[in-house]
Each structure stands twice: as C-alpha cells, then as structure tokens.
Amino acid sequence: MMPINQPSNQIRLTNVSLVRLKKGKKRFEIACYKNKVLEYRSGAETDLDNVLQIHSVFLSVSKGQTAPTEDLKKAFGKDVSLDDMIQEILRKGEMQVGEKERHAQAERLHHEVIDIVAGKVVDPRSKRVYTAGMIEKALEQLSSQGAQHKQEEVHGNDREATAPPDGEEGSGRKKDMPTWTGVTTTKSAKSQALEAIKALIAWQPIPVSRARMRLRITCPANMLRQKVKGGKKAVQNEGEGGDGEKSGGTVKDKILSYVEQVEMQDMVGQEWEVVGFVEPGTFKVLVEFIGQDMKGKGRVEVLDMAVTHEVD
Predict the structure, then answer these.
(1) Across the strands, what pairs with 62?
(2) d(CA 195, CA 179)
C-alpha cells in the first residue's frame, strides 16, 4: 500500500501557543512556545529561536498550512524580511491560549496582584500588614461594588432628570472615585496592583493606607537656615485656593515638613542627617525639592520602600 504524502506546505504542530494577526484581508499565525510570547513582549526574551517553535508564518497552524510567499509580500510589503514579519505578528498579534492555560494564567496573575498589594498597604493605626486572604476578601467586596456601580451608571441617565440637586454632587464624587472590578489578563500585575491600592484607599472596605517609606535625608549644615518658599502643606493647597507661595521657613523646616515621623536626626561632620518615615506620595515632591530648590546639594536615600509590621 502506497503511503499518503503530506503536502509540502503543511507542517503538523501540537502543544503550541498561537499568535494571530489579520493584515491585508488575510489572517496570519505563528507557532510559539508556551509562556515565551509574554517574555518576548516584556523584553525578557529577544531571541526569536527561543520563542518560535518553527521559523515560519502560517495561514493555519492547526491545519499545518504555511502562508504563501505572495500572500506575505502583499500583506507586509515586498521588501520586508521574514523576521520583521514575525516580529510584527509577535508585537501586534492576539495570543491564543487554551482554556486551561487561560485559567492558570489568570490564577497566577491574581495571586501576584494580591501579593503586591499585601506588601504595600498596612492598617493605618497599627502599621501592621494584612494577610493575603484579608486583602483578597476586601478586593472581592470592591469588585462586587464596582459591578453594582456600573449597573447604576447604565440606569443612571433615566434618573438624572428627576434627581434632586443635593444628590448630584454626591453621585459625582462616587463616580470620580477609583473602582476595582477584578484582575484581568490584559494588564501587568504591577499596574493592576496600583489600581487596587487606589480603590482600597478610596473606599476603605477595611482600614488601609499605603505603607510608609523609610528615608535618610542629608543636607549641608550651612544650608539649614536658608529661607525657602512653600512647604508640604503649601504644595498640597496649591490650586485649591491655598496660598502656594506662603513662606515655608528654612530649608530644615521644609525638609522636616515632608517627614511624617522622625526616627533620628544628628550632625555628621559638616552635614545634617535625618532618618524618618515619609508617605509614598510625598517622596517625589521631596526629591524634586532636593534636586531643584537645593540645586542637588542634598541627598535622599531609600532605606525601606515599604515599612510594615508583620502579623504575629
């Protein structure tokens, strides 16, 4: 019995992750190793040989049908190399994964977001961290609220005409507050963790605040008594009807205005040094003051990015 020969442009591949891109009325696919596409897009992997299962562009990976050269040239351009075509598909294409892979990826991302949040927020009274389980429950509560708020927005237009004036302001404030609707696989864990932290602080399903940073700030002793304009409070009030140019006292006064809690301060040779705790939102303003107002003559050293007390 004669064997059945497979057509020359058909290649059978299994156990792959597909990336698809529609271009020039054609859909092109490439066959990649699992997990390598995300590494390539993040910059962690740059070698195409480590990303691709086979160095070809397909019309259908499942059927093993490679894309004809004429179709590729028509869609991508005559002078575009195969590597450039593949890189464009990798960058812009949609990644196809199986249901089990998609679920596993969502689970990993979910736990990563929870861990990041749990490491950056604390109980504002005790300064102790919350367990991952407590953070997860709080975010689940916010997710339910987020779905409810979306429903209210959909039906809100029908009630706007009859809503009393006093209700409009409260409704506007609620609408402007950050919301949380759950982890998605289309964003990085870090960006989603920051969104979750903003929502937790805004809605307070549990008492929560950002963990403070512990800094060492150094300043030449001969600058401490120099007069400066503004301070932390002046910066916060600026644009809100406050006096943004109100005198902030001396350089030393202004630096201390950024420090929520001073751990120690001392003279070390010709320099004044203070170690203390600073809110994360204040850190950038403090660094700008050191760099611009003090012409870079001071230093800010981060001793701890997030100071917490572990739960016993």
Answers:
(1) none
(2) 8
Q: 260-293, pLDDT tens digit by residue?
A: 999 999 999 999 999 999 998 899 999 999 999 8
Burial 161-176 (b: 16+ CB within 10 A, else e): eeeeeeeeeebeeeee
**DSSP code of residue 64:** T
Neighbour tally for 153: CB within 10 Å:
12
Distances in whole angstroms, Cα of residue 30 to Cα of each of 25, 41, 163, 186, 267: 17, 15, 55, 20, 64
User: Could you write out the DSSP letters of every residue in 4-52?
Assistant: PPPPTTB----S-EEEEEEETTEEEEEEE-TTHHHHHHHTS---HHHHB
Of 109, 23, 115, nearest to 74 by C-alpha is 23
Query: At CA 112, angle to CA 107 and CA 115, rounded to 5?
Result: 125
Angle between helical axes of 280-288 and 251-258 (0-180°, round to 10): 160
Task: Report the predicted TM-score, pTM, of the whole model to 2 decimal places.
Answer: 0.60
In the predicted model, residues of the chain with pLDDT beneath 50 are 1-7, 161-162, 168, 231-247, 312
Q: Which two structure tokens, joined as six digits, stand for 270?
A: 């010709």
Element housing 83 (H / E): helix 82-92
Tokens of residue 54, six digits: 């086979």
Angle at the Cα of 32 (from 30 to 53), degrees rounded to 5? 95
What residue type is assigned to position 79 of the chain? D
Task: Report which secondary-structure segment, H or E, holds 255.
Answer: helix 251-258
* HSE, side-chain direction, 13 A CA sphere, residue 279: 10
Residue indicated by tokens 């998605």:
184
Q: Which amino acid is at 63?
A: K
